[in-house]
Design goal:
By secondary structure, the chain is of the alpha+beta class. Helix content is 37%, strand content 16%. The longest helix has 14 residues, at 28-41.
């Protein structure tokens, strides 16, 4: 969103207008500016952002998680894991959650058991693929779901580059008995030729 429009001092009849109080700190432009300043502050911003993860306002907490994920500050790993764990226990659907995305971008093996509990999104599908096939770069993952049921298997058409050659693979993630989302069937040891 753009900043609020300037309000006129008079109406179309020349009469003075009582101006509405406007919250000038909302909107995409201000959110982006705040994010840039926090990222520029680097590690100095980590502790206030970590504290903001516990904010009752999901927008504030989510934005803090997103910025921490971009920063990659490992001090945020345990707090992010705690918040994501609470949200999983509450039964929230977290595939597109900033908390889930932040933990993914930190790419720390310590978070893997928790990440397995959330239905994968395209970014997760690409990360699982790249872990299985070192040196192969995932380019895209298109979600092929037709169901809105969060517990149903989720299918991705994944594009990749291997030694300069393009390839494609279908990956289906299924929730197992322990509640972990894993490829089924498991990814083969070698890419198909």
């Amino acid at each position: 969103t753009m900043p609020p429009p300037k309000q006129p001092d008079v109406d179309e009849f020349g009469m003075p207008v009582i101006k509405k109080k406007i919250d000038r700190f909302r909107g995409e432009a201000n959110r982006q500016m705040a994010k840039e300043k926090l990222l520029a502050a680097g590690s100095k911003a980590a502790f206030p952002l970590i504290a903001a993860l516990e904010d009752r306002n999901d927008l504030i907490a989510g934005n803090a998680a997103g910025i921490l994920g971009e920063m990659g500050d490992k001090r945020a790993l345990n707090p992010l894991m705690r918040v994501l764990g609470q949200k999983i226990k509450a039964g929230e659907q977290l595939s597109n959650s900033p908390f889930y995305n932040a933990l993914q971008s930190m790419d720390d093996p310590k978070a893997e058991s928790l990440l397995l509990k959330v239905r994968p999104n395209p970014d997760r599908a690409m990360r699982v693929f790249e872990r299985q096939y070192a040196g192969v770069r995932a380019i895209s993952a298109e979600n092929r779901d037709t169901s809105n049921d969060y517990n149903e298997p989720t299918t991705f058409r994944l594009g990749y580059r291997d030694n300069g050659h393009a390839g494609e693979m279908i990956i289906i993630f299924v929730k197992d008995e322990q509640g972990d989302w894993k490829p089924a069937p498991p990814l083969p040891d070698q890419l198909p030729k």
